[in-house]
Fold:
Amino acid sequence: MDWWHAIDLPDGSVTPGGWDLRPTAARIPWPDLDGKRCLDVGTADGFWAFELERRGAADVLATDLPSPFQQRARQRFEHARDALGSRVRYEELGVFDLEGEFDVIFCGYVLQMVRDPAGALAALRRVCAGHLLLIETVSLPLEALPSPLARLDARHDGREWFVFNRRGLRKAVELAGWRVEEQTGVLRDHPGPLPEAQRASRSWKYRIGARGRSCALRAAAAGSATQLFGRDG
Ligand SMILES: C[S@@+](CC[C@H](N)C(=O)[O-])C[C@H]1O[C@@H](n2cnc3c(N)ncnc32)[C@H](O)[C@@H]1O
Structure:
């Protein structure tokens, strides 16, 4: 089984995933999670959902958009959940179909996958009564420009829509009705034990930062999305 995430299991083993988010978790500007109702959007193998639970959340719902990728990831999620003795719940749901109310929402590397990232942020705002934790890939070349910017098809392979610079990510979040409380600098993504991931991380693009850089932020639910021209504008 090819894992997406490196997850620590109670027997001392680590799932052999492509992404090791354990060092990144130490850089997230976490709010108090004690007793909170939490949601993880685009959970894949569930790393962030299990992390929310580990850090004290009372209830965690992991969600992901139905797809062949998600079906395989769900099997890995269930394997990890059983091994961890976790109570995280799972639902097959896309970011635009969320319902209910959550105190804390985690959304990791999902905005780059959707054609309407501002709409996705507004959809998250509608189901959040507390905080959003966001981590996204950022474009290092665009960091050099002092404006809120995004790049289309940043990897030239059709696998991403928009990749922002840090100012652009912050601006998109604010326009969707959030108040940004804290934002990290540029973070380096860490490959997991999966051999392909180890190989990719040694490429020149990763080493100079053209790949594998991200930024995290914490935003409070405050206000509503900016609307310039009716519901869709
Ligand atoms: C790059 S992976 C990130 C996985 C995990 N959140 C993380 O931080 O490692 C992107 C995830 O977003 C999910 N995704 C893609 N489109 C989505 C949508 N419209 N709504 C919710 N999740 C989506 C994918 O299924 C996948 O699990």
